[in-house]
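Standup notes
- HV: blocked on the assembly model, inputs below
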Amino acid sequence: MKRQQKLWQTGMHAILIAISVMCILPVILMAVSSITDEKTIYTKGYSFIPEKFSFEAYQFIWQDADRILHAYGITILITLIGTLSGLIITALLAYPLSRKDMPLNRFFSLFVFFTMLFNGGLVPTYLVYTQLFDLKNTLLALIVPALLMNAFYIMLMRTFFKTSIPDALIEAAKIDGAGEFFIFLRIVLPLSLPILATVALFQTINYWNDWFNGMVYVTDSKLYSLQNLLNRILLDIQFIANSNFGSQAELAADLPMESVRMALAVIGVLPILIAYPFFQKYFVKGLTIGAVKG
Amino acid sequence: MKQLTLMKRISRLKKYLPLFLMLVPGLAYLIINNYLPLFGLVIAFKDYNYSQGIFGSDWIGFKNFEYLFKTTDAYIITRNTILYNGVFILLNLMIGIGVAIFLNEIKNRFLSRFYQTVILMPYLISMVIVGYLVFAMFSLETGFINKTILPWLGISDISWYSEAKYWPYILTLVHIWKSAGYLCVIFLATIIGIDHEYYEAAKIDGATAWQQIWKITIPLLTPVVIIMTLLQIGRIFYSDFGLFYQVPLNAGALQSTTNVIDTYVYRSLMTLGDIGMSSAAGLYQSLVGCVLVFVSNYLVRRINKDNAMF
């Protein structure tokens, strides 16, 4: 019996190790390729165990770091502004909806909920933002469309407020003469840190990883976020050669293009992979509450 | 008497004024982001022209839809969208359940958590970066597969990015790699929530680990599985735009197998500037998509009221 159990455990570990390796291998290939000698890549291709290592790609990026740093700056800026303002308007909308005594509560809930069922799609949304609001090629175009708030997070937060904040507490505060804003700021929000953190985490990831808004609404390369810059470089193979990277003719001759490409991807994904183990617990919790009950 | 109720109403409104004020920014955003575009849907029935705007352009009835459904495009994008999503749902489900059960069997909690971390990791990587990873694997001149794997097998180079026939497999693989971890996490949370007494009792009766999985874990997991599947089926008309646009690097030669409704709408709008056609395709997607959401929700409701969206 004991031996059988041990065998079972070993088998399970073997399967899971195999799956884990498959999950992580492409990322390792990318990382190794970024520190592979350019000539080796040309002759042997991207590989896990290259013949010759070289940090040329990173040196190369470092020489012309402005572009990358600028894109990083845009990404950080939109992530901060978007997450913070999105969190504020989400909480402000979710709280009144969670109050049973609020007049027209059902109407407003339905108003929010309807947006989950039916949407206009890309074309009308694009026309509204570009024709009506003139958002094309502005920083707001990276922040506002689609990402700022969504009905799903409102529902999530409303459920939390409803179930975790006792009505009696709010009643008591009212009897003591506290106003609605005071109750919201001083009583409701401090008691709701877990849900606020969860939504903020998801918003941060959404903003950090977003490339869609940039692709649709931004053509000015000064406003490229990190993902948009990476996107352009990958889709347009000649982009590196033609851009600032290759402005000096002598450089253009032997650009470490293939390794630089992978080095850029490493730089793009690194922050999120480093932070991931620290926020994993909250991330998993957020995924499960979201799925089981919205 | 009437005056009294009016006064009452006003004082009630006054009392709730701060709450109404809180609603304003969020509702304003929903109006801009979600409700205004709904009015824009009328352009599917118009011959749109920028100078006349959404409401000034001439009505042309169902002409845009006629054009759309006369082309083979409509058939191809609908077929691709449904087939891909159908396969994704099925495979994700099987792999998600399998891996969740395996993870639950692991006694060592540290390692179990470690595996979970790694398996969920691809879910966090943006599609743009996934495009790079796939490129490193499949690039014609420098890809790992062409330069290392195929020579081992004695097969000559394959030009992956110009051969449409391989992409259904590649895209399915990439999708599973990226999102099976998500379903796995959800199923694992359900499995962990199963009462331990069932397993204790089974052990006393001499049930093997395998029997416990088939007779306890899977039956108790079934409701969540059905609900997750129905919710996904409700969204079968929408696809992951990034997967179908970024991962094949927007290559024209691959479009017969990589074009889905979402990429079609995007390309018609941004590349061809054909607003009529793309808005017709968009409305087609929204309408069918909405019907499917209602149907799937109706079914979820019949199984378990608590899990229904509405």
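- HV (later): unblocked. The longest helix of chain B spans residues 2-40. Chain B has a mean pLDDT of 90.
- Next: hand off to the docking folks.
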